[in-house]
Amino acid sequence: MASDGQVIHADAILAGGSLAGLVAAAVLSRQGYRVIVLEETGHLGSRVGGTQVDGYWIDWGHRDGHGVGDIAFAPVFTRRAAEAVGISAPLRPFVGSCLRVHWLPDQRVTELPMESVVGTSADPVQQVRSLCTCFGVAPDRLEQVTKSILDAMMQLVGISDEEAHALIPARLADWLVRNVSEPEARRVILQQNELVPLGPNESLGRYITHLKTFAGEAGAVVIDHERVGGVQGIVTAFADVVKDNGGQILLNMKPLEVMVGDHEVQGVIALDESSLVHEFRAPIVITDYEGWRLPEFVDPDLLPAGFVEAASDLRQYSVALPSWWAGLSRLPRRRSDGEVEDHASPWQRIFRGRADVKHAYGGWFFTSAFSRNSAPPGKHLLTFWLETFSESGKPGWRSWADARADLDVAIDYLHQYYADLDECVEWSRYQYKTPPSWLSWYLKPAYRHPVKVSTIDGFYVASATAETKGSFLDIECAVGLEAAELAQQERGHLVSDAHGH
């Protein structure tokens, strides 16, 4: 990078090195842009990624991340981002064949084919039929309910993107009452939405966008990095692209101020770990900080009306996230059939209650089913998480003691389901992420801010609080791609002399 005394010149500055920032940096650096990533923490990946503990890679919220929580599968935009920057080696097909659903309090267990979960089945009729069977539709009602659901889906995917955006405040349940006559069809659609972690869908517009985004997409893949495990595998894959194309990733470099002159971005002032001041000049600045944090380093008077407020409104949907991690010497045996658990069903979801639509209670999965390096060779890593609502029915928990009490009840079910879990556990630890945590607003009836900051030329916000089509697992890849594309379209001419593009 060019240096002029205390000033370092580049084509694009990434204020924040979370996954979205690294995706944008990888795309731009591969196009020949001189890129610098400024990351305030000492961790590659910023607030998203994994931390190694005794050979295991622990994910989920320990870095205050909001965009991606686990490496369960990498759907639409993660795959697109990987393809855009030439990442191929860490990609492998998703191996899971089904999701196992546990119904409490009767402890009934059913299996749901994975293509019905991620929406990638080549046969939509069979996909919906599988949902109906899993969710208890009687055999003699199967064809009628399946047809009713498919008719509803056809209506929804036929709605334009513009109308879907306008329908974000509308409630899916209300639309179903008006447009779907079969009560069983309405129940199955609402029950399917309970599969989405950290709370079901409430927004009609968000649900429409979700359906249209996944329609016709190929099967899911996982990013299984050869050197590191868990979410850190995604982080490292994109960071490697940045470095391989001449970009710099500076850790312990905290963005202090985004410099703006005459409504054009000019660069970033940052502090190193000694609080020494560094000035970085560039015609493009992309930040992956949450929208509510922008006033920390941008004059609020320069931001569009309602920009920060839109991000702040999302925090009402943010939740606590208690979980339990266990390192296993081997996989446990199911009590029901005596068979050893395998990775054909890496996800286990719990529904609870006696109402027609059962509420999601949480679940567990083996991260070693997706990322082989998440656990040492021959061993496995299990995590159990609780859903949005506590036993009291209110979001979150008053204290860690309350959260742990609910979590212990859920862990007791694990010991009922597996005959020899205690014999397999080598170590276990609780984890607790207090609000705001993770992407619990993904399908909620709230508008988000755009990626482009309309009042400041060259400034983009690629964070989990931005408006995008990305799912709850790949929203950061979606906004990272969009920010890089917009920057090239709108500001690429300012760096063309240096690179000839």
Class of secondary structure makeup: alpha/beta
Query: Spatial order of the strands in the main sheet?
Result: 9-8-17-18-19-16-20
Cα-atom Rg, whole angstroms?
Answer: 23 Å
The biggest sheet, with number of strands, parallel, antiparallel or mixed sense and barrel status, is:
7 strands, mixed
Indicate the percent of residues in helices.
25-40%
Kindly report how far apart the N and C termini lie. Answer: 18 Å
The low-confidence parts are none
Residue share in β-strands: 15-25%
Name the shape in a single word.
globular
Question: Which whole number gives the mean pLDDT?
Answer: 87
Describe the structure.
This protein has 501 residues and is α/β, with parallel strands linked by helices. Helix content is 31%, strand content 22%. The protein contains 15 helices and 21 strands. The chain has helices spanning 19-30, 76-84, 114-118, 124-134, 142-157, 161-166, 172-179, 183-193, 204-214, 232-244, 307-314, 400-417, 421-424, 475-491, 496-499, and strands spanning 2-4, 7-9, 12-15, 35-38, 51-53, 56-58, 91-93, 98-104, 108-113, 221-223, 248-250, 254-261, 264-271, 277-281, 284-287, 321-328, 347-352, 359-366, 380-386, 425-433, 459-461. Strands 9-8-17-18-19-16-20 form a 7-stranded mixed β-sheet, sandwiched between helices. Strands 1-2-14-13-12 form a 5-stranded mixed β-sheet, with no helix packed on it. The protein has a 5-stranded parallel β-sheet with strand order 11-4-3-15-21, with helices on one face. Helix 1 links the parallel strand 3 (12-15) and strand 4. Helix 4 crosses helix 5 (142-157). The longest helix is centred in the C-terminal third of the chain and has 18 residues, at 400-417. The radius of gyration is 23 Å and the shape is globular. It starts with a strand and ends with a helix. The mean pLDDT is 87. Residues 19-332 form the Amine oxidase domain. Keywords: Plasmid. InterPro entries: Amino_oxidase, FAD/NAD-bd_sf.
